[in-house]
Amino acid sequence: MATSKYFNVEFYPTLTGAQIHAGNIVDGELLLDWQKVAMPKGSARLLGVTAFIKGNAGTLVRGAFELLFADNNTNSIDDVNDASSVASSVRYFRDTKGYVNMDIDENSSKVPGFAIAHAGSADEGFAPFVITPTTNSPFDGEDHFYVGAIKGATNFNFATGITLDGELTAGATTVTVNGNADTRLTVGDDLITQNEAVIGKIKSITNATTIVLESAVPVTIATGKKVLSTTPMKFIFHFER
Predict the structure, then answer these.
(1) How large is the C-alpha radius of gyration of the chain?
(2) What are phi and psi of 184, to 5 degrees?
């Protein structure tokens, strides 16, 4: 007798400092071009998606966006850059294998600090579909697929409102900021500036103004630069096999 196996795949899409610094990502703009998502080997049926979204300087963002799924990324959804309006094109038509609308009506209004959106098989208009991932090495236990996103009606802004308080010297592992690190950042966040200077991954947050990094800052960064997390969103894909 056949049995079902349910599993989740957790994914943190990566944004650039320039994309975050640009401010609001508006209706019709590219939120994510194709990004690779690792999953256990073999085809599986996507039953639902949950998204956790940090907002602008601790403010909740609630808004729809559209997810596209592909088994390869031969053709960019938008070949200009992220956060630009998606051009009228069919070049990624053959790459696209699935679609999920993350509806604004499914956002949680009760969790402080970040928004939660969900789409699942019980929702009107959601059609579960099978993802047949691209095979990696036959020995590593993982395959992969690709996901992209286009913003819906309500603007998204991922700025933290945090800046460096003083010059950050190359080799430092402690970062002093102007406040709110303990409410707007998360241990494990990869930090960069608006011009893509790498600060590093957060090991711990001592208090509102002090961050400890996992490794030394690679280059000296001037005071006042914005401190941004490259991963203000988290997706959990719910599968059945």
Answers:
(1) 19
(2) -115, -10
Yes or no: say if 226 and 157 are a contact pair by the CB < 8 Å rule: no
Short-list 131, 106, 124, CA closest to 42: 131
Q: Which residue has the tokens 């800046």?
A: 163
Q: How far apart (Å, rounded) are the C-alpha atoms in residues 190 and 1? A: 46
Instruction: Give average pLDDT by consecutive 10-residue segment, the chain, 241 residues.
Output: 79 93 86 93 93 84 87 80 69 90 67 81 77 80 91 85 96 96 95 96 98 97 97 95 90
pLDDT at residue 1, rounded to an integer:
43
- Tell me the C-alpha distance between 110 and 214, whole Å: 33
The predicted pLDDT at position 176 comes to 98
Tokens of 214: 């996992």
Distance CA(216)–CA(220), nearest Å, equals 11
> If you count them, how many residues does the chain have?
241
Which of 231, 197, 217, 195 lies closest to 54 in space, CA to CA?
A: 231
Q: What is the pLDDT of residue 25?
A: 86
- For residue 204, what are its two tokens? 């711990």
Are 65 and 154 spatial neighbours (Cβ–Cβ below 8 Å)?
no
Q: Name the pTM for this structure.
A: 0.89
β-bridge pairing 30-40 and 233-240? unpaired
